[in-house]
Automatic annotation (TrEMBL):
SMART domains on file: CO_deh_flav_C
One of the Pfam families matching this protein, by short name: FAD_binding_5
Record bears the keyword Oxidoreductase: yes
Keyword list, A-Z: FAD, Flavoprotein, Oxidoreductase
Protein's recorded name: FAD binding domain-containing protein
Source superkingdom: Bacteria
Record lineage: Bacteria, Bacillati, Actinomycetota, Actinomycetes, Pseudonocardiales
Keyword DNA repair: no
Cited PANTHER family: XANTHINE DEHYDROGENASE SUBUNIT C-RELATED
InterPro entries, A to Z: CO_DH_flav_C (IPR005107), CO_DH_flav_C_dom_sf (IPR036683), Diverse_Substr_Oxidored (IPR051312), FAD-bd_PCMH (IPR016166), FAD-bd_PCMH-like_sf (IPR036318), FAD-bd_PCMH_sub1 (IPR016167), FAD-bd_PCMH_sub2 (IPR016169), Mopterin_DH_FAD-bd (IPR002346)
Domain FAD-binding PCMH-type: 1-174
Organism: Actinomycetospora chibensis
Length: 284
């Protein structure tokens, strides 16, 4: 199929891009790896595409003040290969699972957040780390916690006339441990179940599950690690948590029960991995 007719606009500034989004019948084009297939299948028919790929200031990728800033035009492959991503190890661990290398060469980090696919890795990483999403609209700039950005499948709290300009991830601190894993039919396919985990040596552990609900599901799992931080010791708790979290009806690739079992196993395994990493420096 081919996309329905649309107008194409390439603004020269962020303000001009925001003006072009007014009216609610326009979509932002950054990498296009999610948007173009939607257009080709005519699942979406925006009247205008607003191309932000060359806007000045949206290609920033830097660590400053303990925060990794990723602009809206920064490609996933650029992040994957950048020294700056070392400041946020969880992004580096998740990135190889994001589609295929060719897709990451065009797709953007902010575009993945804006698309809000329930099986996407980066929205789950952002939610796990409590990242901040910066939006620009006709009423100015506002900041939204990543955990509040995605409100449903392919749906965010951003207004139709708002543009995500950057996402800010807190840099890892000494004593932080991380875990990331997913199960898919083939590498690059949509995740049947996945987890992103952050454990802090001084106390506190967070898990974000994806592919099992209509948005990333975040849980404080600190208490699970207090008694027996081994995979066998955690499994009863992570299985119970998974049974609560998974609310998909299932499909031809996996029933609800199968996805819950996958999630329980992955959660226990990655919690142990993150816990060990967080504490290994103290025992070195």
């Amino acid at each position: 199929m081919k996309a329905a007719p649309f107008a194409y606009h390439r603004p020269d500034s962020v303000d001009e891009a925001v003006d072009a989004l007014a009216g609610g019948d326009a979509k932002v084009l950054a990498g296009g790896q999610s948007l173009v297939p939607v257009l080709a299948m005519r699942l979406g028919r925006p009247g205008t595409l607003v191309d932000i790929t060359r806007l000045p200031g949206l290609d920033d990728l830097e660590v400053y003040g303990g925060v990794l800033r990723i602009g809206a035009a920064v490609r996933q492959r650029t992040v994957e290969r950048s020294e700056a991503v070392r400041a946020v190890p969880l992004i580096g661990r998740a990135m190889p699972f994001v589609g295929h290398r060719e897709l990451r060469s065009r797709g953007t980090v902010c575009g993945s957040l804006a698309h809000a696919d329930p099986a996407a890795e980066l929205p789950a990483v952002a939610a796990c780390l409590d990242a901040t999403v910066v939006l620009r609209g006709p009423r100015g700039t506002r900041q939204v916690p990543a955990r509040e950005l995605v409100v449903g499948a392919m749906t965010t709290s951003a207004g139709p006339d708002e543009l995500i300009t950057e996402v800010r991830f807190p840099a890892a601190a000494s004593g932080d441990g991380f875990g990331f894993a997913e199960i898919a039919r083939r590498h690059g396919d949509y995740a049947l179940a996945g987890v992103a985990v952050h454990v802090r040596r001084g106390g506190g552990a967070t898990l974000a599950a994806f592919g099992v609900s209509d948005r990333p599901v975040v849980r404080d799992v600190t208490a699970l690690l207090e008694d027996d931080p081994t995979e066998a010791g955690l499994r009863p708790s992570t299985d119970a948590m998974a049974d609560e979290i998974v609310d998909t009806a299932g499909d031809a690739h996996g029933s609800r029960g199968y996805r819950a079992r996958l999630l329980g196993v992955l959660a226990a395994r990655e919690l142990v991995r993150a816990h060990r990493e967080a504490h290994q420096e103290a025992h070195a």
